[in-house]
Amino acid sequence: METGEPSSIWEQVAASGLAVALRENAWAYPLLETLHILGLALAVGGIIVFDVRLLGYARSIAVVDLSRHVLRFVLAGITINVATGLALFISDAAEFAGNRSLHVKLVLIALAFVNAGLYQSGPGRDVGTWDRGDVPPLRVRLHAAASIALWLGVMTAGRMMAYLK
Amino acid sequence: MSLIALRPIARAALVAFSILAAGTGTVFAHHTFVTKYDAGKLLTVSGVIGNVRYSNPHIFFDITAKNGTTWTVETEGILVARSKGLTEQVLKDGATATLSGWVSREKSAELGLKSITIGGRSISMRGTAR
Questions:
Q1: Do residue B28 and residue B81 come from a single domain?
Q2: Residue B18 counted as domain residue
Q3: Chain A residues close to B19, C-beta within 8 Å
Q4: How many Å apart are CA A49 and CA A144, to the nearest integer?
Q5: Contact B55 A57 (CB under 8 A)
Q6: With an 8 Å Cβ cutoff, are B56 and A28 in contact?
Q7: What does each C-alpha distance from A36 to A33, A48, A161, B70 come to in angstroms?
Q8: For all residues of chain B together, what is the average pLDDT?
Q9: Is B57 in contact with A29 (Cβ distance < 8 A)?
């Protein structure tokens, strides 16, 4: 650290007892990474399965039935990954705060949530009129395609954090 | 599920990946996809170890040569380092060592550790530059 220069908020976070414990314990980091992959599998896996249905495939399964089944796994995955992602970030906050792949990832997550919100508050409100047998409206399919692209982008940007900083 | 039924899904996935590739390609257009350390530039340094950060996902430490040059050295994570014998007891501030590593393409004074002789033993950490 530079002499006399006040350390940034991220350097202070990285110097905290929790951060030191997370990176200096032999098993904490690999365990967090493993759980982060589990969360990814549940969240992105569930999202893609649901979005493919919204694109118009497997129309014998009602959208409402599928969402009831799949979205709880998605929520569980997102919960796990917010928690493990924060812990991984804290462990080396000064390094990760400047990581451009993480910036891209966070922007893509925000866009994915906005997209999901626009679907939920838009065509998702009258899902009952098209959720069985019909090809979903074009707007629904566009939301689904955008969702798949954005979440694959989130996943890719996350992996690129180790390579494109 | 039959192959025919999967085909439109594969097409949708391909479209999604294309959109994604176009997006990330724009963001990182000025970045070449290379490894951090230059496999063609292997350097040997002898000196004193300092500023050991025995941490995950990678361990970092400094080595200061007799001529005063200090290199920051990156190596594997805690579990790998321990299993190869580069333990916290061996890799500590003030220890003397001779090491060879690949020079960073990004930072001028950073090495990716290949092998190290320290505490009376030679340890090969990595066969290829990362």
A1: no
A2: yes
A3: 149
A4: 10
A5: no
A6: yes
A7: 5, 18, 14, 36
A8: 85
A9: yes
Query: What residue segments make up the domains of chain A, in order of their start?
Result: 9-160
DSSP 8-class letter at A129: G
A17-24 and A63-91 helices cross at what angle (nearest 10)? 100
B83 contact A CB<8A: no
ipTM, 2 dp: 0.81
- pTM for this prediction: 0.83
Backbone φ and ψ for B103, nearest 5 degrees, come out as -75, 140
Q: How far apart (Å, rounded) are the C-alpha atoms in residues A37 and A26?
A: 18
User: Is A164 close to B33, i.e. CB distance below 8 A?
Assistant: yes
- Domain containing B45: what range? 37-124
Q: What is the pLDDT of residues B7-29, one digit of tens each?
A: 665 666 666 666 666 665 555 54
Residues B25 and B45 in one domain: no
Alpha-carbon span B52 to B60, nearest angstrom: 6
pLDDT-based confidence at B35, cuts 50/70/90? Answer: confident
Measured distance CA(B7)–CA(B13) in Å, rounded: 10
**In CATH, what number is assigned to the domain containing residue B112?**
2.40.50.140
Phi and psi based region of residue B60 (left: phi greater than 0; alpha: psi -120 to 50; beta: remaining)? beta
* Residue among A47, A156, A161 with most chain B CBs within 10 A, to mutate: A156
Token pair of A28, please? Answer: 């904490």
- The predicted model gives A12-35 an average pLDDT of 96
Amino acid occupying residue A1: M
- A126-130, A147-151, B7-11, B19-23, range with greatest mean pLDDT: A147-151
